Amino acid sequence: MKMSGDKMLASSPMLMFLLSLLMASFFHTTAGQVGVCFGQKGNNLPNPREVVAMYKLNNITRMRMYENNTEALNALRGSGIEFILDVPNHFLKLFADSQTEANAWVQNYVKNYHNDIRFRYISVGNEVKPGDQGTALFQAMQNIDKALSDAGLSNIKVSTTTYMGAFTETFPPSHGRFKDEFLNFLQPAIHFLAGKGSPLLVNIYTYFSYKDSKNDDIPLAYALFTETNPRVLDNPHTYQNLFDANIDSVYAALEKSGGGSLDVVVSESGWPTQGGKETSKENAKTYVNNLIQHVKNGSPRRPGKPIETYIFAMFDENDKPEETPVERYWGLFSPDKVRKYDVTFN
Ligand SMILES: *[C@@H]1O[C@H](CO)[C@@H](O)[C@H](O)[C@H]1NC(C)=O
Ligand SMILES: *[C@@H]1O[C@H](CO)[C@@H](O)[C@H](O)[C@H]1NC(C)=O
């Protein structure tokens, strides 16, 4: 008995080690992977075939795309890249009003590609606001979901992308809740996502909170993940960076709205290199590389649970409005395919 007991003791560290290797490789190959948004509001971008080659060369294994662009969908065939496709906001009303139109869209842009493209989610809408689009959102989600299941594609999850502007009282994070005018139209969507075990997609930009903060009450380091001491105490949690505070305020809001079981996917995050306060390649490099490492470990409210995250964006986009120069310079790459700063994805 003693012998085998000793053997157990001797072998268990080995077992733990092997297990931890297994776990590490599991997270490494799935949940820990960070994707990049392929925004296309530029008139000088490389063609989609070159773009997909750039993703592969740089070990970027996930993409979010905002338009049902057939050239890009064809380029993605066989790439192995996992993919989020948006239903653009201007189609929400059309698809809410017509199951036939929703079916056609799913047929043309999902079903026709699903053998060769690894769809993760269809995001019905991006940063949808109260008003006509908000009113149409839930019905559009339902119609796209029905179109997918009728096409035999119920494994592809439907969600929607919201943003920090939909939330209020996000400080301290536990006080976070949806603004009433957003909850009005998002409540049925939250219920739907909870019922399906699907995540909510949320764009989280510490940059904008930092830029818009009054009296400098958000220090740059807190926004860039370089703060070395806890800054916010929200019993029992402490916060050392604004990204965690933001995502946990979203979790707090979901818990108050029947969505406590939902995962949050960070569908956009990044830092611009020019055009505004504290924009630089140096700060962007710091933010993006810290983000990639940070999301492997979850947030205080969901410790140890990797956060699926997409960096905004692949390229600088010169078709964004000139009045808001900061919108144009979020790229990891310039349109001539030159890397603006070093990022390590794997
Ligand atoms: C991509 O991954 C491969 C294999 O792990 C590595 O050799 C290569 O340097 C990586 N490329 C970049 C641009 O990080
Ligand atoms: C996307 O789908 C809509 C609706 O089916 C269609 O009208 C539009 O032309 C498509 N967009 C692109 C870029 O192909």
Automatic annotation (TrEMBL):
GO molecular function terms attached to this record: glucan endo-1,3-beta-D-glucosidase activity
Catalytic reaction annotation: Hydrolysis of (1->3)-beta-D-glucosidic linkages in (1->3)-beta-D-glucans
UniProt xrefs under Gene3D superfamilies: Glycosidases
Keywords assigned by UniProt, alphabetized: Glycosidase, Hydrolase, Signal
Organism domain of life: Eukaryota
UniProt KW NAD keyword: no
EC code: 3.2.1.39
Annotated signal peptide: 1-32
PROSITE patterns found in the cross-reference section: GLYCOSYL_HYDROL_F17
Family (UniProt): Belongs to the glycosyl hydrolase 17 family.
Record protein name field: glucan endo-1,3-beta-D-glucosidase
Organism: Eruca vesicaria subsp. sativa (Garden rocket)
